[in-house]
Amino acid sequence: MQGIFYALVPMIAWGSIGFISNKIGGSPSQQTFGMTIGALIFAFGVWLVVQPQLTLTLWFFGILGGLLWAVGQSGQFHAMQYMGVSVANPLSSGSQLVIGSLIGAFVFNEWTEPVQFVLGAIALTLLLVGFYFSSKRDAENPLMQQEQGQLSDFSKGFRALAYSTVGYLSYTVLFNNIMAFPVLSVIFPMAVGMLVGALALMKFQVKLTPAVLKNSLVGILWGLGNIFMLFAAAKAGLAIAFSFSQLGIVISIAGGILFLGETKTQKELHWLLIGLFCFISGAVLLGIVKSY
C-alpha cells in the first residue's frame, strides 16, 4: 500500500505540469526556463541532504541528459500551445511509450519471453488506437470552421511533438539503457544540464519575468515526481511505479478541459475517452511486460 501511495505522487505531479504551466502563462521558452530553475533548486536541496559523490562521469552524462530533456520539454510546451494540453500530453506520452518500448525490445533485448512479445504487441496496438482517438477531431465543430489558423497550428503541434519525442527518448535511453545512475546522485548534474539547455534554447537572452519565476514552481513538481518514482519502484516494483506514472494523462486531460477551458464537442469527448482508455490499458500492459 505504501508503494502505491508513493506511485500516486509522480502521477499527480507530472500530470499537473502541463496545465499548471499553461495556466501560469508565458512562452514555451519561458515555461521551460522557469521549470529548470525550480528543478535546479529542488535538485540542489536533494544534494545538500544526501550529499552523493559527484564524479566526472556523473557530471558529464548528467548534464548531457539534462540538455536532451530540455529539448523534449520545450517541444512539449510548444505542442501544448498549438494543440492544447488535453491533446498534446496524451500524444506525447503515447509516442514515448510506443517508440521507447520498440527500442527497448529490439535494440536492447528487453523482451525475451514469448509472452512479452504477445502482451507487448497488444499494448502497442492499444497505444496506437489511443493515438488515433486522442487526436481525432470533429469536422462539424464550429471552432474548426471559424478559426482558419487552427489546422496549421495542429500540424505545427505534431512537428513540435516529433522533436520533443526525440529529446525525451534520447534522455530516457541514456539513463535507462546506456548509463545507470542512482536518481538521487544524478538529479543535480541533470538539473544543471536542464538549465543550460533551456538557456541555449533562449539564445542566452535571460529575462527573469514573472512568468519565468512562477513556472519555477512547476520544476519543483517535476523533482518531487522523480524522487517518489524512485521510492515507488523500491516499495512496489517498477511495474506498478511505471503503470501509475502513466495515469498522469488523466490529470493532464482533466486539467486542460476544466482549468484551461479547452472545449470539446460531444463526439470529441467520446473519442477522447476511448483514446484515454486505450492509453491507460496499453501502459498497464507495458508495466506487466516490464515485470517479467
TrEMBL record:
The chain crosses the membrane at residues 6-25, 32-50, 56-75, 87-108, 114-134, 160-180, 186-204, 216-234, 240-259, 271-289. It is found in: Cell membrane. It is a multi-pass membrane protein. Its main location: membrane. GO terms for molecular function: carbohydrate transmembrane transporter activity. It comes from the Bacteria. Belongs to the GRP transporter (TC 2.A.7.5) family. This is Sugar transporter. It comes from Streptococcus pantholopis.
